[in-house]
Amino acid sequence: MNIRRMLSRISNNLLVWLAAAAIALCACDRSTKELASYWDGHDFSSLDGFNDIKEAEDKFDGYIDLLSKVPHEVAVENMREFLDSAAQNTVAYMVWSGWFEPYYHANISPYKNDAMFVAWLDKVLEDKVIDDGGMMEHLQQMRRVMEKNQVGSTLEDVCLRDCNGEEFMLSEIIEKKSMILLVDANCPSCLSSLEENVNEYRDANLIAVLVEGGSYHIQNIRRQVSEDILEKWTLVCGSKNRLEAVAYDISNLPTRLLVSADCEIIKSYH
Fold first, then answer.
1. Chain segment 161-174, per-residue pLDDT in tens
2. How far apart are the C-alpha atoms of 116 and 79, rounded to whole Å?
């Protein structure tokens, strides 16, 4: 009787799983079809088809939403077609391509370093439509960061210092799954993120790396953050030059790197 019940439960669970998978496939197929016709009636090589910039932003927001719901290969192909059309007009290309970064990561992706974003970077660098040297240099630096610290890759090791100035390698203090938080002592959002990540990653080893500074800056942090929070963190000092040398993205602190016990990057995001 127990075996019969067990087999019945397994069968029911399998049916539920298959039904859920079928629904997901249908939703994905529907999103793919919607994406294929999303820009029908509008030439996105310019913004002229919209009454105002807010309307264009809303339209683009919906486009990014659909990109996140289709298979990666479909999303990349559509994104490339989109930018090829926009490239007919330099100004339009600057606007449309420039919206990918904030819209895709602020609205959709919890990860700074993901495959779709890398594909976008490669496309923009390949097109060479943007003639702003500073912007292209910024994008090239971002691409170098992606090469070194992609989700699934091994964390780039770096030399750090403790409060007494003793040097050690970051990998030496990663004994289990760890949240590495790169912070600036003068950044309010960095200090608040210490508390936020304590709540979110209770099962992880917490390591806060002060991007620039020394024991004085650590004491400054201790004056602003409660001891109940700080006692859960290992506070260490880094060097901006050293961190940038291994291509950590410290352009927008705080930066979070969630890594496994063997230093494999699980998440990489701001």
1. 887 888 999 999 99
2. 9
Nearest Cα to Cα of residue 127 among 170, 74, 169, 84? 84
In the chain, % of residues over pLDDT 90: 36
Question: Which residues partner with 168 through β-bridges?
Answer: 160
Measure the CA–CA gap between 231 and 217, rounded to whole angstroms: 16
Query: Mean pLDDT over all residues of the chain?
Result: 84
Q: Are 214 and 139 in contact (CB under 8 A)?
A: no
> Is the dihedral angle over the CA atoms 191, 168, 173, 258 positive or is it negative?
positive
Q: Which residue is associated with the tokens 């995001």?
A: 269
Specify the pTM: 0.64
More confidently predicted of 256 and 107: 256
SS (H, E, C) the chain: CHHHHHHHHHHHHHHHHHHHHHHHHHHHHHHHHHHHCCCCCCCCCCCCCCCCHHHHHHHHHHHHHHHCCCCHHHHHHHHHHHHHHHCCCHHHHHHHHHHHHHHHHHHHCCCCCCHHHHHHHHHHHHHCCCCCHHHHHHHHHHHHHHHHCCCCCECCCCEEECCCCCEEEHHHHCCCCEEEEEECCCCHHHHHHHHHHHHHCCCCEEEEEECCCCHHHHHHHHHHCCHHHHCCEEEEECCHHHHHHCCCCCCCCCEEEEECCCCEEEEEEC
C-alpha to C-alpha distance for 197 and 191, rounded to whole angstroms? 10
Tokens of 83: 């930018």
Residue 183: closest CA among 229, 236, 232, 132:
236
Nearest of 158, 163, 167, 180 to residue 218 by alpha carbon: 163
Q: Measured between alpha carbons, how far is 240 from 237 in angstroms, rounded to an integer? A: 10
